[in-house]
Model the fold of this input.
Amino acid sequence: MDSFLVSSNGPLKGSVKISGAKNAVLPVMAAAMLTDGVSRIGNVPHLKDMRTMADVLRVTGCRIKESENELSIDSSDINHLEAPYELVKTMRASFYVLGPLVAKFGRCRVSLPGGCAWGPRPVDLHLKGLEALGAKINITHGYVEAICDGRLKGNTFSFPISSVGATANILMAATLAEGSTVLQNSLIEPEITALAEYLTDMGAKIDGIGTRTLIVHGVEKLNPGNGDTIADRIEAGTFLAAAAITRGKVKVTNMVPAHQGALLECFKNIGCKISQGDDWVELDAEGMSLSPAHITTLPYPGFPTDMQAQLMAVLASIKGTSSVRDTIYSDRFKHVSELERLGADISLKEDTAIITGGSPLSGAPVMASDLRASAALVLAGLAASGQTKISRIYHLDRGYENFEGKLALLGANVERVS
Ligand code: EPZ
Done:
């Protein structure tokens, strides 16, 4: 298992090119199953999760070719309507094959994903949505069996809790349903909008894209899709946070500023200077004494839960009392104890972390627990005196392409050791 050796090398400076978004390419890969033919996806990031999703699709009979940053997915000969536990347990997003398979073939069997590092991750909203479209759901031996006689039937369904994954799964299923489907309390994360646009390119009929109510007019069949993956807004935010914690000046390029949502406001509120263009954002914190902040995560365009660990590391480096409340995952705080090992002063109360920032961070051996917690530990290591050794960084490889290489280009001392 690889580890990172991180040591401070002063403020990060320079520019970094953002890769395609993990959370956008995964549902689009599943969407390719809805057609018979070869779909193309461009600007694909080379990530472990993308390879896992490719393995899940191959198990069903899809043929996948990877070249440079492109994927071609041939879903003409899907012949095994199952996603096995061995794969689904390693990546929850494998569950995205459920909607497409039951919509196209009338049945499928997908392993329940189980929990993750920070706690249970239910899928009840996915199942309720499919039942609303006429699927019969049976859970046995850790697998979800979904069956429907003939085609799924369009219906109106309101998500009791807004869910990215459930919105994606039911949206994909509804594209082939008989009649129209109204999905209320959907989410408008850029990755959902990108999926809806890719499905539209395949011939799906979707109204209300970019709003919380999606209206899908089912069609009999979809054509192969062709589109490029949007830039990863969380990778972009992570590099902006790296600039802030090292009091540096970094320009992230090849990204969509509008997709940063409330994040840019947050950086401005703590005192960073933010400038931006069509496809870039620059954060300048050089020589600045930043201010504490109180952050609450919300669905897009609110502050993203996938950035709360990284911002917690930044707030630990800022004198004063800050807080981070996660309303999406009230228990997503595995990084707190590891940040404390680096000298951060953080107390947890239910879904809120109180950070008393300003005491100097000092390097120590720590352990990555999940993707964004690992990123937070790297950021803290960049600001800590002495060396920080972060073990189990396979978590990072799931969602950050060449993270150490990109950081090194900005002047960071990050070495991967096996
Ligand atoms: C997606 O996960 C992202 N993953 C997550 O990013 C992200 O943190 C999350 O959305 C929230 O924005 C991908 O896109 C692959 P949810 P997802 O369904 O879809 C509850 C990362 O770091 N819920 O929006 O699994 C759930 O417990 C990852 O890149 C149910 O109760 O998240 C949570 O409290 C981590 N029942 C809330 O909804 C369900 O059936 C939001 O979860 C589904 C979800």
Notes: DSSP finds 14 helices and 24 strands in the chain.
